[in-house]
Specification:
- This protein is mostly helical.
- The protein has one domain.
- The protein contains five helices and no strands.
- The two termini are 27 Å apart.
């Protein structure tokens, strides 16, 4: 049975992925928004990015629920964005925003790299903290 390290090997890159994904989500949404940008658009951009940052914080704190959410997120990204990239590179008659292609080019390879860590025995030992402790 593997021992739990102070910082498992894949913990730092996994949390960093979600931090960068949150910043990328916020930045690309603001960049692509019409000018002048309405407050509601800025609010939603910051909200979407904050969800990624909240997940990164939960992973860093080793919350088991956040590991499960991150695995589901990675599986959804791999299937959805792979389909988007396939359609975009096949020059499908569908217009894709540049931000969607940029996010998929970052998230597909990154999720393919961090998903094996999230599914590993090392991660199941590291992410044992409950969301609410007594």
């Amino acid at each position: 049975m593997p021992s739990v390290e102070a910082n498992p090997t894949g913990l730092w890159p996994t949390a960093a992925f979600f931090v960068v994904a949150g910043l990328l989500e916020t930045g690309l949404t603001v960049w692509e928004a019409p000018r002048p940008m309405p407050l509601a658009g800025l609010w939603s951009a910051v909200g979407y990015g904050s969800l990624h940052l909240l997940l990164a914080w939960g992973l860093w704190r080793r919350l088991a629920l956040c590991r499960s959410i991150a695995m589901i997120y990675c599986l959804a990204v791999l299937t959805t964005y792979a389909a988007v990239l396939t359609l975009a590179f096949a020059k499908a008659p569908v217009a894709f925003p540049a931000s969607l292609v940029a996010k998929s080019l970052y998230e597909v390879p990154s999720c393919a790299l961090i998903l094996p860590f999230l599914r590993s025995a090392e991660a199941s030992l590291a992410f044992r903290r409950a969301l609410f402790e007594r």
